[in-house]
Amino acid sequence: MSDLTLCLIDRPTAPPGESVSIVDADPLQATVLATDFGVNRGDGIFEVAGCVDGRVHALDAHLRRFARSASMLDLPKPNSDAYAEAVRRAIAPLCAQRPGQEVLVKFVLTRGQEMGGTGGPAGWAIAYPCPDFAHDRSGIDVVTLDRGVRSDIMRTTPWLLGGAKTLSYAANKAALREAKRRGADDVLFVSTDGHALEGPSSSLIARINGVLVTPHPDEGVLAGTTQADVFAYAEEVGFRTETRPVLTDELAAADALWLTSSGRLCAPVKSLDGRPMAVDAALTAEWNDHLLARS
Ligand code: PLP
């Protein structure tokens, strides 16, 4: 049996209450047309969620952010019920094969046909085994890279779609290759006016004077579902949290940094631009255990 499972959604933006079919498909056969905007322009949106034993972590938060990304791209609203059903169907066989293990599910909406075709937006959910992130969860080397935008990008240049989870991740992947060339594992993007932003596929959490801080989504960063759940848990156990601009100068005073995301969860930063950072292994493990137990 393949360790990928794909469910296609025939009318991914059908209004609520209208009938939508979800069909199983072979993930290794062509299912998206070569005329699709998503394929040709990266014009579409996606989400990736983690799952264990059929529980999809933060599914509602992912569906809300998916709808928000659609609105930012002027796409029709995705049918959340259909996506939730496709996600559950796609993960079921993999979760059954892998009790207690992490599975990832990606769901996608494209703008539809760029040329020729008459079809509407394409939508699907694909489930796949989670890579082994044990190394990253024990500590990663991170370099800062200039994103080439100011921190007020959302106000001045909203068409750059900061904070939307679009299919256009080529620049994010290029930044990761640059990190590898510099001998690092990952990237922290910074703005031209000296604000720490986010990773190419992760949010930043910094502990500064005992307070957990993360950059504000108004600065063009994606509102992270993992970061939000870490903050909710940390507040319950007595941490103060702040969502606010984080200056790169403040990072020198941080007593710990993490990059957080749905698949890898919390990866503590063990060096930033070659400068060693303290890793709080116990707190990282506590957060990751909490995240894995989420429904
Ligand atoms: N920022 C960016 C640019 C991302 O692509 C991601 C996730 O892929 C995140 C932050 C973290 O978001 P989440 O924790 O919801 O996975």
UniProtKB/TrEMBL annotation:
One of its GO terms (biological process) is carboxylic acid biosynthetic process. It comes from Propioniciclava tarda. Keywords: Lyase. Belongs to the class-IV pyridoxal-phosphate-dependent aminotransferase family. It comes from the Bacteria. GO terms for molecular function: 4-amino-4-deoxychorismate lyase activity. The keyword DNA-binding does not apply. This is Aminodeoxychorismate lyase. One of its GO terms (cellular component) is cytosol. The keyword Lyase applies. CDD domains: PLPDE_IV. SUPFAM superfamilies: D-aminoacid aminotransferase-like PLP-dependent enzymes. It is an enzyme of class 4 (lyase). Its EC number is 4.1.3.38. It holds the Pfam family Aminotran_4.
